[in-house]
Design goal:
The protein has five helices and 14 strands. The protein has 189 residues and is of the alpha+beta class. The longest helix has 12 residues. It is globular, with a radius of gyration of 17 Å.
Length: 189
């Protein structure tokens, strides 16, 4: 059944934010007439996609959720240093082809856990894009043991290194997250 959603501009796999769009809720598959509940990985990845809607750099909207024992410990999205202007407000600060105004979602989630005294050793992180090398190093040194990511983002060395140090990497890019874009209207709401 189509519904109208208010979200942001469509951007490589992120829901519409700030623009009108029509989405279909994808029904859960049924076996023997019973509705299938989403898996825990699907559940937390759906939440990571929602967290990404808070991102303040339009070059990439990324969300991260740190979880242990099926409980959320911390979340993060890419945004500027606390108290400083966001890309959405003042534009990008580009160095070597990358915007350096923002702190990445994974780093912000780890920082949020630290600020709140939350132990994340042995946890999992769900992130809408695979971590860059810098964030991967933070994740590894924080003791996170599982990374579930929604799309590949630029650094293939995480695959080899994760195997060498025992971090489980789960490529979730082929999974559907529960909504499907049907129609996109460029009419700003």
């Amino acid at each position: 059944m189509p519904i109208t959603a208010i979200g942001a501009k469509e951007q490589e796999g992120t829901p519409c934010r700030g623009w009108a769009c029509t989405v279909n809720v994808i029904p859960m598959s049924t076996e023997g007439g019973a509705r299938r509940r989403v898996s825990w990985d699907e559940y937390f990845m759906n939440i990571a996609h929602e967290v990404a809607t808070r991102a303040t750099c339009d070059r990439k909207h990324v969300g991260a959720v740190i979880v242990r024992d099926k409980s959320i410990l911390a979340t993060g999205y890419n945004g500027s240093i606390r108290g400083l202007p966001h890309c959405d407000d003042e534009g990008h600060l580009i160095e070597d082809g990358h915007c350096v105004r923002t702190v990445h979602a994974e780093a912000n989630a780890i920082v949020q856990a630290a600020r709140n005294g939350m132990r994340i050793d042995g946890s999992a992180i769900y992130v809408t894009a695979s971590p860059c090398w810098g964030c991967f190093r933070l994740i590894a040194n924080a003791g996170i043991v599982k990374i579930v990511f929604g799309e590949f983002y630029r650094d293939p060395k995480i695959f080899d290194v994760s195997q060498r140090i025992g971090i489980e990497l789960v490529d979730f890019s082929s999974q559907r997250i529960g909504i499907e874009l049907v129609e996109f209207s460029k009419t700003t709401l």
